[in-house]
Amino acid sequence: MSANMAKGKRSPVMKVAFHLWSAYRHVLVWFWVIFTVIYFGINEMIMRGIIPDESIRNSGREWDGATISPRIFLLVLGILLTIGSFNSFVSNGITRRSFGRGGLLFAGLLSISCTVLHLLGYPIEMLIIEISGAERSMQYPNLAIVAITNLLMYFGYFCGGWLIGTGFYRFHWFKGLLVCLLAVAFLIGMETMTATELTGSTAADQGIILFVLALASFLIVWINDGFLRKIAVKRKITL
Amino acid sequence: MTITIEVSRLGLLYDKSAKALDDVTFRLEGGKIYGLLGRNGSGKTSLLSILASFQQQTSGEVRIDGEAPYENERIVNQVCFIQENGYLSESFKVRDVIKLASDCWPNWDADYADRLLNQFELPAKKQIMALSRGMKSALGVTIGLASRAPITIFDEAYLGMDAPSRYYFYEELLKDYMEHPRTIILSTHLIEEVSDLFEEVLILDKGKLVLQEEADKLRSRGSAIIGPADAVDQFAEGLTILSEQKLGGTKSITVFGELGAEREKRATADGLTIGPVSLQDLFVHLTRKGIGSDERKHG
Amino acid sequence: MFDDRSPIYQQIADGIKNDIVSGVLGEEEQVMSTNQYAAFYRINPATAAKGFQLLTDEGILYKKRGIGMFVSPQAKGMLLEQRRARFFEEVVDKMAAEAKVIGIPVMDIVKRLEQLNGGEEQ
């Protein structure tokens, strides 16, 4: 009886988030460890002239831009979410609504983790620069802006992937492809917005940019949730 | 604590025109073992997956404990639907699958699950994709039994298992059902092996409900009559004949319906032999082309 | 297990009756529960319960609340009487009819029966 009560405490949404998190957290950590090592390794080789690349060598700070791979990584995880986990949860008596909300919570956790792990890269970069001599710039960027932007981008990429996966799970290949294009359009839009940020702008502009990023993420999530609610559990996905 | 299932005028279309289910109406009292019989493609799985909220119907209504089950938090975690080789994530390990199930089903019995895993010799660390068909079935069956869900549905769930495992499953199912009464629906076309477990039987054919009847009654309503052709023909007057065969002057027929003491006496006097018809045979005859439609009014 | 024409519960009832007549089940002895019966024969407990219902209706078993089912004191007597009543109709008459069809004189049957009885007495 006590075991039942303990189980009852966690809501279905939390169950979904918890199980997804425990299934993927190792993958996440491994990804970041390997990614960081390779990234700084290659960067250092460029700096020391082992790999010749003048443009990177002159620009100095690189870690700011080290978010493309994590985004793609999250996109892939997102694509796998419905395809890989929807059946398991729904066949275990979880509603689609709870799966959707639990998935969102998981998306949030992933995005926050990736944001934090990315921020941890800055001191590492500083350390490497210090060790290798002080010719390069050593100033931190505005970490708050970096963090919020990255958080929204990670979240957007994961949910974009999730929408793509949901589309292919629910529909035949053609409609699935349309959903996929829609998701990609959103992501391209978000990328464009962040690119304008790099050109330098006022605090108000940045506020607008972040708002648009958040809005785009919300739309992706909203569309995805609408699709999820009506999905029939399938044995095989017909592409 | 048992739960009633009410289905009324249920319909399901697929590909916009083909009817997987057509105007199906029935009521299942809680706490019984039901046998859902039907040929391949008769709509069994469609019906069961609607009960389990795996998909939505096109028309009609389902009420479980008085409520529509689809996306109903209170109902969906009381209906456990196990299919052969069902919905297991291939990359998961056995113990991950069990862990998820144990977290999701409110009445889950962990000790019982362990016992079943042991008995079926399922290695906890193995990945689902590395399991044989029989082992996957055994894992599904383990989840179904240990879930103790008030409505537990096995849709051909044990087909991949070898005979000893299947019989172990039947025994466990019965034992656990008696200790923890609940509604169990077994869908199968291997009727002979499980028919003694049924309290009630439903037969689906081409998306329609052919009959719903107590298993004992159904069994007693089928008889095989063998004897001289003339006598058999005379005897069969007014009875529903499901099948007939002739060998020289001897005729054998399968009839459906109460014979009554009077008729049975006459049969002995006329030199006819009355034999039993198994549920399996009845099922075959009732769902053979064109026959099922005449019998729809019964039950 | 059960493939006779009569329903399973009928067969269970008959089985218990046989046990009472042959003395395997004594008077006032407790009978296995429906659940034990169901588990043993791998049948639905409702089916087993129907067999028991049949027997309580006939007064062969009775229920002690909260304990279980027991053989009535008069059960064996009743069953023996029933069987004796049916003996001639169900066994002797059939035998006689069969003997007639295949041409065995009644005297031969009587002789045989005497022989059997004599053999038993020795």
From TrEMBL, chain A:
<keyword id="KW-0472">Membrane</keyword>
<feature type="transmembrane region" description="Helical">
    <location>
        <begin position="102"/>
        <end position="124"/>
    </location>
</feature>
<feature type="transmembrane region" description="Helical">
    <location>
        <begin position="144"/>
        <end position="164"/>
    </location>
</feature>
<feature type="transmembrane region" description="Helical">
    <location>
        <begin position="176"/>
        <end position="196"/>
    </location>
</feature>
<keyword id="KW-0812">Transmembrane</keyword>
<protein>
    <submittedName>
        <fullName>Uncharacterized protein</fullName>
    </submittedName>
</protein>
<feature type="transmembrane region" description="Helical">
    <location>
        <begin position="208"/>
        <end position="228"/>
    </location>
</feature>
<feature type="transmembrane region" description="Helical">
    <location>
        <begin position="21"/>
        <end position="42"/>
    </location>
</feature>
<keyword id="KW-1133">Transmembrane helix</keyword>
<feature type="transmembrane region" description="Helical">
    <location>
        <begin position="72"/>
        <end position="90"/>
    </location>
</feature>
From TrEMBL, chain B:
<dbReference type="InterPro" id="IPR003593">
    <property type="entry name" value="AAA+_ATPase"/>
</dbReference>
<dbReference type="InterPro" id="IPR051782">
    <property type="entry name" value="ABC_Transporter_VariousFunc"/>
</dbReference>
<keyword id="KW-0067">ATP-binding</keyword>
<dbReference type="Pfam" id="PF00005">
    <property type="entry name" value="ABC_tran"/>
</dbReference>
<protein>
    <submittedName>
        <fullName>ABC transporter</fullName>
    </submittedName>
</protein>
<feature type="domain" description="ABC transporter">
    <location>
        <begin position="5"/>
        <end position="231"/>
    </location>
</feature>
<keyword id="KW-0547">Nucleotide-binding</keyword>
<dbReference type="InterPro" id="IPR003439">
    <property type="entry name" value="ABC_transporter-like_ATP-bd"/>
</dbReference>
<dbReference type="GO" id="GO:0005524">
    <property type="term" value="F:ATP binding"/>
</dbReference>
<dbReference type="InterPro" id="IPR027417">
    <property type="entry name" value="P-loop_NTPase"/>
</dbReference>
<dbReference type="GO" id="GO:0016887">
    <property type="term" value="F:ATP hydrolysis activity"/>
</dbReference>
<keyword id="KW-0813">Transport</keyword>
From TrEMBL, chain C:
<dbReference type="InterPro" id="IPR000524">
    <property type="entry name" value="Tscrpt_reg_HTH_GntR"/>
</dbReference>
<dbReference type="GO" id="GO:0003677">
    <property type="term" value="F:DNA binding"/>
</dbReference>
<dbReference type="InterPro" id="IPR036388">
    <property type="entry name" value="WH-like_DNA-bd_sf"/>
</dbReference>
<protein>
    <submittedName>
        <fullName>GntR family transcriptional regulator</fullName>
    </submittedName>
</protein>
<dbReference type="GO" id="GO:0003700">
    <property type="term" value="F:DNA-binding transcription factor activity"/>
</dbReference>
<keyword id="KW-0805">Transcription regulation</keyword>
<feature type="domain" description="HTH gntR-type">
    <location>
        <begin position="6"/>
        <end position="74"/>
    </location>
</feature>
<dbReference type="InterPro" id="IPR036390">
    <property type="entry name" value="WH_DNA-bd_sf"/>
</dbReference>
<keyword id="KW-0804">Transcription</keyword>
<keyword id="KW-0238">DNA-binding</keyword>
